[in-house]
User: What shape does this take?
Amino acid sequence: MDVDPSKLEPRLLTLEARLEDFDCGDVDLNEFLLRDALTYQDQYLAKTTLLYFGSKLVGYYTLSCDAIRLDVSEKNFFHRRKQIKSYPAIKIARIAFIKDCQNKGCGSLILEVVKGFVHKINKEGAGCRFITVDAYSERKEFYLKRGFKYNIHKDYKENAHPSLRFDVWTWLHKSTGSE
Assistant: This one.
């Protein structure tokens, strides 16, 4: 299947969605979509967006609210006047695509969508500085190549999946040339 990432159609997960044929090659990601995503949504824990190419479900991503702690060495860089214990974030809880769509730019497109979503949140009245992800070890390079950095605060040292963050404010100001 030749998929053009720009032609993906997002739809929020509903009870009516047909999910049983979805297979991204990862049991955990498949099971989350089939067994847990609606419950997470119903309990206001996370929101899942399905991605269709034509009439075929080819992927999904799940977002939730998050907060991260910064290491003492980083705090002066991010906020000089007051000590902030945690910084608001949106967490990419899951991203998955069927095998035919993997390594074709779909994941990169989703990161751009999430950046735009966070920018919109900031414009409409809530602060959100970071995008976070607890990456599978084999996928961390994907995020690092796209500007994510390791969370170095001691709270993240023991995570099974590397905790990464993307600074939306810095990205936005670098891309617009403003300070």
